[in-house]
Amino acid sequence: MLQLPALLVVLILASAYAVLLHLLLGKSVRDMVLFWVASVAGFACGQLLGERLDLIPLRVGHVHVIEATAGAILFVLAAAWLRPQGKKA
Prior knowledge:
Oligomer: single chain
Shape: elongated
Order of helices and strands: HHH
Radius of gyration: 14 Å
Structural class: mainly alpha
Largest sheet: none
Helix content: over 70%
Distance between the termini: 49 Å
Strand content: under 5%
């Protein structure tokens, strides 16, 4: 279970990844919200996978940064690929 400092690191990093990918791939505020939710979910999944497998011993406190970052980026890229496209005139 993550404690408050680790949870803050998770939210800050996941938000930073969402903003970065929104600047590269996003077009609207709706995309930003979608990317943020996907980033937090991906970061959480990567964190859980890192805790279970413990393949990469590098961590920041209790946060498995490498696995969680990979999860966040994969989830955001999947969300960008699956998002509904705007209507074209």
